[in-house]
Design goal:
The protein is of the alpha/beta class. It contains nine helices and ten strands. Strands 2-5-1-8-9-10 form a six-stranded parallel β-sheet, with helices on both faces. Helix 7 links the parallel strand 9 and strand 10. The longest helix is centred in the last third of the chain and has 15 residues. The radius of gyration is 16 Å and the shape is globular.
Length: 225
């Protein structure tokens, strides 16, 4: 996977491991001496007065304060949580928040999947388009992932944004499907970097950095400009 100066991290669904993948990449880059920011502009399901668990993990990885442009308390889709709290989510405001925090490498994590609504006529995919970065698709290794990955990648490519790669996160349960999914994805997406994320248990900086290095492979050695 060739990492550029910007990357948008999306998922095939919610709870597939986007934040751990994003944090692992950020920790590996930071460990290699790269100035990196890992950002979560919108989060829902946040405890009052916090930016949420995802922002906290990204903070551990990149060494910057945990923050979100909009932290919503209800564990709902952002457009529903924002409506319940009387908050307006607008692309210009979210994009400006990101731009003010850009570093040598900037990773931006979406919410849920590619088509999750942010507001009337606005989706996570629109934020990715406004940011204009290559897209990394994160998918959980489970039965059904091939369909989910195909649909998500097709939608990303239809948007005109480049595909940075696919990361398959560890299964919750090992079975016959999970043993074949990595090879099947590589067959379905020839020429695309399809990586398997190792299981992260402690979520400390050292373990995240090790997992991130395994994803980036040769990229850390060549990212010098």
């Amino acid at each position: 996977m060739r990492l550029q100066r910007t990357l948008f991290v999306t998922g095939t669904d919610t709870g597939v491991g986007k934040t751990v993948v994003c944090a692992a990449l950020a920790a590996a880059l930071r460990h290699a001496g790269v100035r990196v920011r890992a950002l979560k502009p919108v989060a829902s399901g946040c405890a009052p007065g916090t930016s949420g668990d995802d922002a906290a993990l990204l903070s551990l990885a990149d060494g910057h304060p945990a923050e979100a442009a909009v932290a919503l308390q209800a564990p709902l889709s952002p457009h529903l949580a924002a409506h319940a709290e009387g908050v307006s989510l607008t692309l210009p405001a979210l994009l400006e928040w990101i731009r003010l925090r850009e570093a040598e490498v900037t990773l931006v994590e979406g919410v849920g999947g590619w088509a999750v609504p942010l507001g009337a006529g606005c989706r996570i995919s629109d934020l990715a388009l406004a940011f204009g970065a290559p897209v990394l698709v994160v998918a959980r290794n489970r039965l059904g992932v091939l369909n989910h990955a195909l649909l998500t990648v097709e939608a990303v490519l239809r948007s005109g944004l480049p595909l940075a790669g696919i990361v398959l996160t560890p299964p919750e349960l090992d079975d016959i499907a999970t043993s074949h999914n990595l090879a099947a994805l590589r067959e379905l997406f020839p020429g695309v970097a399809v990586r398997a994320m190792r299981r992260v248990t402690a979520c400390d900086h050292a373990e995240l950095a090790e997992a991130g290095r395994a994803l980036l492979l040769e990229d850390l050695a060549t990212h010098t400009d």
